[in-house]
TrEMBL record:
GO annotation terms (biological process): daunorubicin transport; doxorubicin transport; response to antibiotic
Keyword annotations from UniProtKB, A to Z: Antibiotic resistance, ATP-binding, Cell membrane, Membrane, Nucleotide-binding, Translocase, Transport
Annotated SUPFAM superfamilies: P-loop containing nucleoside triphosphate hydrolases
Residues of the ABC transporter domain: 6-238
GO CC term, one of those recorded: plasma membrane
Topology versus the membrane: Peripheral membrane protein
SMART domains for the chain: AAA
Family indicated by similarity: Belongs to the ABC transporter superfamily. Drug exporter-1 (DrugE1) (TC 3.A.1.105) family.
NCBIfam families the UniProt entry points to: drrA
Organism expressing this protein natively: Kribbella albertanoniae
Identification of the protein by name: ATP-binding cassette domain-containing protein
Length: 321
């Protein structure tokens, strides 16, 4: 097995209508790591996953998964990986066991081995008592767990999860996070998961690669990326949007306040010290009779990291997509 479970160099992909989905995307992941590919809708995450799982080809650049080249060694790559697409690939009319046994048989397991593996995986994901039921009767969270189990049938070295918790309720989401964390921790599996949930990236990923417009703009651990940002974040929510930029320029006059970004009624800024900045912010706005709904101070979040590297908030990027 290679030192890097996944490595991409300068991947470029332009779709037929001229949409450049990847624009020189490079990153690498070590073995046994959960890598979060975080980016707003349309950033190029799914395209990256499709290239790494051999479902699509880059126009240029190279990629290796489990030490195999995704173009020249497609078969080896396919055997080394598990892929859980955004849309479930299980048969809703079949039972959980039937789906898993079929999955095993497709990968060449004997019937006995496929049945044994199915039982193991159902147990692993707490689905044993539901194994005999049709998948259409499963809750969203159970279906998703079965999807992940299907991706693991052939004991892959690298598992790709494309937006694994989209559409799940918070409880099912947290449950799946626990499962994925356990997989990587106890079984040495490398996991690449794409997500547009900041919280998911923060909670689940050992390493993060932030994707914006088809490029990686920042890489590191969630904590490392946040701690690179000095000071605190201040969010000021106004009663009326700062349409003419008055509030923005007023805040800009205060010492120790930088990176002021206005989005509708919300202004976000970085300050050296939150405790001293808040009275100063409120004071200057009160002087000018500008009504404020709320002011909050927090340690930098991944949203601030994203803002720092791309110049816009994650939510604004999602809305623009
Ligand atoms: N088959 C396609 N044909 C044309 N354009 C495409 C195709 N697939 C993706 N795109 C475009 O390429 C860009 C990157 O898409 P991609 O699906 O990789 O992004 P993403 O980060 O995975 O977003 P999402 O979370 O919405 O899947 C987007 O602008 C998208 O509209």
């Amino acid at each position: 097995m290679a030192t890097h479970a996944i490595r991409t160099t300068d991947l470029v992909k332009t779709y037929p209508k001229g949409q450049r989905a990847l624009d020189g995307l490079s990153f690498s992941v070590g073995e046994g790591v959960v890598l979060g590919l975080l980016g707003p809708n349309g950033a190029g995450k799914s395209t990256t996953v499709k290239i790494l799982t051999t479902l699509s080809r880059a126009d240029s650049g190279t990629a290796q998964v489990a030490g195999y080249d995704v173009i020249r060694e497609q078969d080896q790559v396919r055997h080394a990986i598990g892929y859980v697409p955004q849309k479930s690939s299980s048969d809703p009319m079949a039972t959980g066991i039937e789906n898993l046994v079929l999955g095993g048989r497709i990968y060449g397991l004997s019937r006995t081995d496929a049945v044994r593996r199915a039982a193991e995986l159902l147990e692993r994901f707490g689905l044993t008592e539901f194994g005999g039921r049709q998948v259409k009767t499963y809750s969203g969270g159970m279906q998703r767990k079965l999807d992940v189990a299907l991706g693991l049938v052939h004991r892959p070295q690298v598992l790709f999860l494309d937006e694994p918790t989209t559409g799940l309720d918070p409880e099912a989401r947290a449950d799946l996070w626990t499962e994925v964390g356990r997989l990587a921790g106890s079984e040495g599996l490398t996991v690449l998961l794409t997500t547009h949930y900041l919280e998911e990236a923060d909670r689940l990923a050992d390493q993060l690669a932030i994707v914006d417009h088809g490029k990686i703009v920042a890489e590191g651990t969630p904590e490392g990326l946040k701690s690179e940002l000095r000071g605190d974040s201040v969010h000021v929510e106004l009663v009326d949007a700062d349409t003419d930029g008055t509030v923005r320029s007023l805040l800009g006059q205060l010492p120790g306040i930088t990176e002021i970004v206005a989005e509708g009624k919300v202004l976000r800024a970085r300050v050296d010290h939150g405790a001293t900045a808040v009275p100063a912010v409120l004071g200057i706005l009160e002087d000018k009779a500008i009504p404020v709904s709320a002011v909050t101070v927090s340690r930098p979040s991944l949203d601030d990291v994203y803002l720092n590297y791309t110049g816009r908030s994650f939510q604004a990027a999602e809305e623009a997509a």
